[in-house]
Design brief:
The structure holds 2 protein chains of 2 kinds. By secondary structure, chain A is mainly alpha-helical. Chain A has 2 domains: 161 residues, no CATH class; 49 residues. Chain A has 7 helices and no strands. Chain A starts with a helix and ends with a helix. The mean pLDDT of chain A is 96. Chain B is mainly α. Chain B has one domain. Helix content of chain B is 84%, strand content 0%. Classes of the chains: A mainly alpha, B mainly alpha. Chains A and B meet through helix 1, helix 3, helix 4, helix 5 and helix 7 of A and helix 1 and helix 3 of B. Chain A: Pfam families: CbtA. Chain A: It comes from Litoreibacter meonggei. Chain A: InterPro entries: CbtA_put. Chain A: Keywords: Membrane, Transmembrane, Transmembrane helix.
């Protein structure tokens, strides 16, 4: 059992880690590097005279191979960890008599994207480098509680009776009723268009990665179980 | 009598299998948490700098 959990997760996590890194290099990293121009002050959008204007365009990509290798490496580690939790979900639902298939795995991946990325992003949007935000520990607590509440809520909707599903929906809403920790002041230095684009690109690429993670992990889980 | 013994043995095997898979699940969860913490949340600046771009892309609240 442990071997099945581990092998499905590692193969799926490493493959998706590489795919996610490629998607990030293509769609996210250019915006991130552009954000660093505002973070460092190399580019200024909000001038002291009150005008708001700055050039668009990102610096050259792949100038620091070590940095890019680390991005690939950490994507592999992160998605392997996430795949472990998906595989645990498969094992637990199979114990409850629910069959796991590759297609269902894809749905699991999309649901996990909602729980781990989309729901927390509604309170704590993906941040460009240099963004000033509320106390990191408070944000981490809210992030973890939101991920757990959304995951349990979606699980109740998917596998519970109707009443549990209603409870699940309430659970998903709860962290947003409580509200994420925010500051009373805006400090953003980057162009608002860039921040918005970074947030959507970050969510979009993660959605693809998560869907593939669910698909791959389930495919391997079924394959190794039958072997 | 013989059947009872058989049933008892079967039962014990089932319980053992169930326990073993629970142990596996717990082990996998512990490993997953450890990996996730190291990749996403560890505050050491060396970890933060090396994981920087990926953490931003994944929107981890890491600093």
């Amino acid at each position: 059992m442990f071997k099945n959990l581990l092998t499905s997760a590692v193969f799926a996590g490493v493959a998706v880690g590489v795919i996610a890194a490629v998607l990030q290099f293509w769609l996210v990293t250019p915006l991130l590097l552009e954000g660093e121009l505002y973070e460092s002050g190399a580019r200024v959008h909000f001038a002291v005279d009150g005008s708001t204007q700055s050039d668009a365009g990102h610096p050259a990509l792949f100038t620091d191979p070590m940095r890019d290798l680390m991005t690939i490496g950490f994507n592999m580690v992160t998605f392997t960890a996430f795949a472990l939790f998906l595989a645990i979900g498969f094992a637990l639902t199979e114990r409850g008599g629910h069959e796991v298939t590759a297609r269902k795995g894809l749905i699991w991946g999309i649901a996990a994207f909602i729980a781990v990325q989309l729901a927390p992003a509604m309170g704590l949007p993906p941040e460009l480098p240099g963004t000033v935000a509320a106390d990191v520990e408070l944000r981490q607590i809210w992030w973890i509680c939101t991920v757990l509440a959304t995951a349990v809520g979606l699980g109740l909707i998917a596998f519970g009776p109707t009443l549990a599903g209603i409870g699940g929906a309430a659970l998903i809403a709860l962290p947003h009723i409580v509200g994420a920790p925010h500051l009373d002041t805006y400090f953003g230095v980057a162009a608002p268009e860039l921040s918005a684009h970074f947030a959507t690109a970050s969510l979009g690429t993660s959605a693809v990665a998560w869907a593939l993670l669910g698909l791959f992990t389930a495919t391997l889980w079924v394959k190794f179980k039958d072997a | 009598m013989n059947n009872e013994v058989k049933a008892a043995t079967l039962n014990a095997t089932t319980i053992q299998t169930a326990d073993m898979s629970l142990v596996s699940i717990l082990g996998a969860a512990a490993l997953g948490l450890a990996l996730l913490f190291a990749a996403g949340f560890a505050q050491a600046s060396v970890m933060h700098d090396t994981a920087h771009d990926q953490r931003h892309a994944m929107a981890f609240p890491c600093h």
